[in-house]
Specification:
The protein has 368 residues and is of the alpha/beta class. It is 54% helix and 15% strand. Helix 2 runs antiparallel to helix 7 and helix 5 crosses helix 7.
Length: 368
């Protein structure tokens, strides 16, 4: 009998020290003050501000790190935008010789034809009952007021035409403008994306839509709303008439190019005004294989395509310049915020050190 009692006692003792998880469960405890003693495996994003001797030093230090990382991102985005501005500048310079030659040939043919060119459909002025607005915005944000300025300009032009009793519809280039006007149920004819590197294929699709709409009588005039590149810190929403063309404007309109520089360590833009291309001289006894009117009629779509490509490149350059300025402002604000937070962190740390010294002195005084 004694043996059985000893065995039962040993079995109960072994069960008391079992390794099952239930054997080591503890009663729930109250939350630790300010999460100082929270589980080390908790996610960093759920951690609350840790008070260190009356100062939120850890939270301030984490915020300083976050703002510094954000500043690195905005500075990198500024440099990327600057590189893309230079690419847009190179694209404009590459298309300049073709535009000059086209303008020169067109001017010479107009002088040769005289008043006969006025009979061409794309040069014919007619009563305006409906206007198509080509609006160029960006595909992305983070570029200051670039998109909002262009959208407001388009809305103002639509309201102005409506007040004059003229109908209007929109050809939208860029996702930001398309999203805005679709939600407000504006009459939209066509939507295109505005890439960061416009090419002739994209400009050709837009110009074909414009010419087909005008020649079919669906619209009586086409106006282009784009952002004119002025400088890295300024741009101007502009409006110009694309169709019908003006022979005098084509043959007498000058041009300008811009070049991104880095004088004194800062980005800057140099603008250069270009003179009007001299009309090519066609002698009166020159024989054309085709009718000069047909040649002019073939040149006009090429001219429209070149103008659309040029305005797309200029709008992209304006967008990138606005993004550069926005990222520069964000970087400056981040630097100022880091400086302010560093001062707060130093005050909190000094307050903690002062508190510890006071506690030590008080303890030493109590022992005397």
């Amino acid at each position: 009998m004694k043996f059985l009692c000893v065995a039962a006692t040993a079995l109960a003792t072994a069960q008391a020290f079992t390794t099952s998880p239930a054997a080591f469960t503890t009663a729930p405890t109250a939350p630790a003050l300010n999460n100082v003693f929270t589980d080390a495996g908790a996610a960093h994003r759920t951690r609350r501000a840790t008070i260190v001797m009356d100062g939120k030093a850890n939270a301030i230090r984490d915020r300083i790190t976050t703002v510094s990382n954000t500043k690195k991102i905005t500075s990198a985005m500024k440099l990327v935008a600057a590189a893309k501005v230079r690419r847009a500048q190179d694209s404009v310079l590459a298309t300049r010789p073709f535009s000059e030659t086209l303008q020169s040939v067109f001017g010479g043919l107009i002088q040769r034809l005289g008043g006969e060119a006025a009979d061409l459909p794309l040069l014919t002025q007619r009563e305006v009952n409906k206007v198509t607005l080509v609006v160029i915005t960006g595909d992305r944000g983070l570029c200051g007021g670039y998109n909002s300025f262009m959208i407001k300009k388009a809305e103002a032009r639509v309201n102005e035409l409506k007040a004059q009793g003229i109908e209007s519809d929109l050809i939208l280039i860029g996702k930001k403008g398309a999203t805005y006007f679709k939600r407000r149920e504006y009459p939209i004819r066509k939507v295109y994306d505005c890439t960061q590197n416009p090419d002739s294929k994209q400009a050709l699709a837009i110009s074909e839509e414009i010419i087909n709409s005008f020649l079919s009588g669906e619209t009586d005039a086409v106006e282009l709303l784009y952002t004119k590149f002025v400088s890295l810190i300024a741009s101007a929403p502009s409006v110009r008439t694309l169709v019908p063309f003006s022979a005098s404007e084509i043959s007498q309109q000058g041009d300008e190019v811009f070049q991104l520089t880095s004088s004194g360590g800062d980005f800057d833009v140099e603008r250069k005004e270009l003179d009007v291309a001299e009309p090519q001289d066609f002698p009166n006894d020159m024989i054309f294989e085709q009718d000069p009117l047909q040649i002019v009629n073939s040149i006009l779509p090429l001219y429209l395509n070149g103008q659309i490509l040029r305005t797309l490149q200029e709008s992209v350059a304006s967008e990138l310049a606005a993004r550069m300025q926005s990222m520069q402002s964000a970087s400056d604000n981040a630097s100022a915020l880091v400086k302010t937070l560093s001062q707060e962190y130093n005050r909190a740390r000094q307050a903690a050190v002062t508190q510890e010294i006071l506690e030590i002195v008080s303890g030493a005084a109590a022992l005397e």
